[in-house]
Amino acid sequence: MSVIEVSDLRKSYGGRAVVDGVSFAVEEGEIFGILGPNGAGKTTTVECVEGLRTPDAGRVRVTGLDPVTDHERVTRVLGAQLQQSELQAKLTVREALELYAAFHPHPLDWRPLAERLGLTPKLASRFGKLSGGQKQRLFIALALIGNPRIVVLDELTTGLDPRARRDTWELIEDIRTGGVTVLLVTHFMEEAQRLCDRIAVIDGGRVAALDSPAGLIRRTAGSTVISFTPSAPLDERDLNGLPALVSVEHKDGRITLAGTDETVNAVITLLACNRITALQLRVTDATLDDAFLDLTKETAA
Ligand SMILES: Nc1ncnc2c1ncn2[C@@H]1O[C@H](COP(=O)(O)OP(=O)(O)OP(=O)(O)O)[C@@H](O)[C@H]1O
After folding, report:
1. Which residue's alpha carbon is at the smallest distance from atom 30 of ligand 1?
2. Does the keyword Transport belong to this entry (predicted)?
3. Atom number of ligand 1 nearest to Cα 46
């Protein structure tokens, strides 16, 4: 069942389309990622889902509700991560949790939530004195306090150190295991690859691709790279004739080929037929980074 439906969403500023016909659906219980370069229209899209911006055209539904006309009801099913500026520096963690719990008709008990997020030792600390990671944990707690079915997290781990980032990822997985659907806007490929069931790559206000992380990688031209130093020279025509080959590079006697598994199998056969040994043979898969660069290269050009 889709809990978020976006179809042909459009939004312009000063006559410039920043969201230009975006469509996707988020299924209940999944972690759905929105990935894209700076200025691609990710936040604008997500803010239309939250009902914070009114679309110029298109249709947005959150559990069947219109986020603009049914804003009140949408805020009960959808929890959104606050921006830094929305909390006063002098508010303590406990006060923030109590305050935000009071905004909701059926809030979660904030004590176990604070415990789960590792905030119990910080309850008396003022927001302004928290570390970046502690602030993020508090924002996640505040997004979840209304007991939402869906939580929207935008740039969740920006500014966190690697340890805090990994802890936050575990937390997001726990949240999903608890039955909450997660809509995640991120710049971090590793984060998207690790957490998301599906990803919409948004570029220039449009959906450039929508697939699982593995599916996006498979679409990348040259998704497998094989490199080796041959024990004897190889015929250049044989190399260029390899199936599904995307590129061949020679450097310091080493050959690097980008292609698919078919290319790898064919090069191994070619080497065997010519009784050539492949020294320091390495085969690597493309990453989501490669897929992202490939999918968004037109706007970068
Ligand atoms: N209120 C506004 N008025 C005018 N232009 C805006 C407004 N909000 C966003 N924009 C412009 O719309 C474009 C898309 O912005 P948006 O914040 O949606 O992108 P984004 O993909 O979230 O980018 P980033 O990754 O940098 O946060 C940008 O060029 C931005 O400058």
Report:
1. 39
2. yes
3. 18
Tokens of 87: 């909390």
Q: What are phi and psi of 9, to 5 degrees?
A: -70, 135
- Mapped onto helix, strand or coil, the DSSP state of residue 117 is coil
Q: Can you give the pTM of this predicted structure?
A: 0.83
17 CB near ligand 1 (under 6 Å): no
Q: Where are the alpha helices (DSSP H) in the chain?
A: 42-50, 71-77, 93-102, 110-116, 132-144, 162-177, 189-195, 213-219, 236-240, 261-273, 288-295, 297-300
Residue labelled with tokens 């039955």: 179
pLDDT of 194 > 80? The answer is yes
Whether 18 lines ligand 1, by a CB cut-off of 6 Å, is: yes
Cα(18)–Cα(28) distance, integer angstroms: 27
The residue behind tokens 């830094």 is: 84
The per-residue pLDDT for 298 is 59
Distance (Å, rounded) from C-alpha 2 to C-alpha 205?
22
- Give which of 2, 3, 81, 36 is closest to 207, Cα–Cα: 36
**Is it the case that residue 17 has pLDDT exceeding 70?**
yes
Instruction: Give the bridge partners for 186, in sequence order.
Output: 35
Where is average pLDDT lowest: 151-160, 169-178, 188-197, 271-280?
151-160
Task: Report which residue type is found at 191.
Answer: E
Of 12, 16, 18, the one to substitute when testing ligand 1's pocket (max ligand atoms within 8 A of C-beta) is 18
For the chain, report the end-to-end CA distance as a whole number of angstroms: 38
Sheet holding 198-203, edge to edge: 78-80, 150-154, 181-186, 31-35, 198-203, 206-211
Percentage with pLDDT > 70 across the chain: 98
CB count within 10 Å of CB 86 equals: 9
